[in-house]
């Protein structure tokens, strides 16, 4: 895979190059640009497979770079890497069909997940279900931190997830994360996670793939009494009523 990095901070550019080449032996960083104009000229000359770009750069910013490449018919894929302070740009980035929007400082795990997307055709990523990525598409205007949280929920809802640890993983305070999540999703984190888990349990029950106990365990509940309570609160009916209704469909 032939890659160009567009980043005006030399240290960040070197770090990303080292990370990419460490994660995949077949990645070749063919050029590095310090601004969007230079990056566009390199795209024309070298026809890279992927461009990793910052947003705020001299002469031409990252979003203008992507728009220009799209308008001129280049099929290059783009990955944006930007700072928290620039989260408003994420809304525009989503409309430009970028592969991903990563928030600095990026981790090896995050970059590796992006590479997995790049190496697989869309919709055929190994280990992903047909619903993967569905949560973030429901909230396209959400803050990048919230979008990342939704991705984690979708991947890890079967295990232990709590707001404090999740905020720490995302590099923000618990208070700020709670504010962002509730503002953008219109419900607090705990209620959203519970609702999501119950919906997944309903999917398992509807498909006849699990008993109530198995379904509860598979979606992250360890206490059956609490599962029954949450199930009724979220669906408006007891588990037995829900199963009876399902058999009549």
What does this molecule look like?
The chain is α/β, with parallel strands linked by helices and 249 residues long. The protein folds into three domains: 2-119, Response regulator (Rossmann fold), CATH 3.40.50.2300; 134-186; 191-248, Arc Repressor Mutant, subunit A (Orthogonal Bundle), CATH 1.10.10. Helix content is 55%, strand content 10%. The chain has 13 helices and five strands. A five-stranded parallel β-sheet has the order 2-1-3-4-5, with helices on both faces. Helix 10 (189-206) crosses helix 11 (212-218). The longest helix has 18 residues, at 189-206. Residues 121-132 have low confidence and may be disordered.
What is Rg? Answer: 21 Å
CATH class of the largest domain: Alpha Beta
Tell me the number of strands: 5
Relative helix content: 55-70%
How many structural units, i.e. domains? 3
Q: Classify the fold: give the CATH topology of the largest domain.
A: Rossmann fold
Level-2 CATH architecture of the largest domain? 3-Layer(aba) Sandwich
Strand content: 5-15%
End-to-end separation: 50 Å
The main β sheet shows up as: 5 strands, parallel
Q: What is the H/E order?
A: EHEHEHEHEHHHHHHHHH
Mean pLDDT: 85
**Class from secondary-structure proportions:** alpha/beta
Number of helices: 13
How are strands sequenced across the largest beta sheet?
A: 2-1-3-4-5
CATH superfamily of the largest domain: Response regulator
Low-confidence segments, given as residue ranges, are: 121-132
Task: Using the alpha-carbon principal axes, give the shape.
Answer: elongated
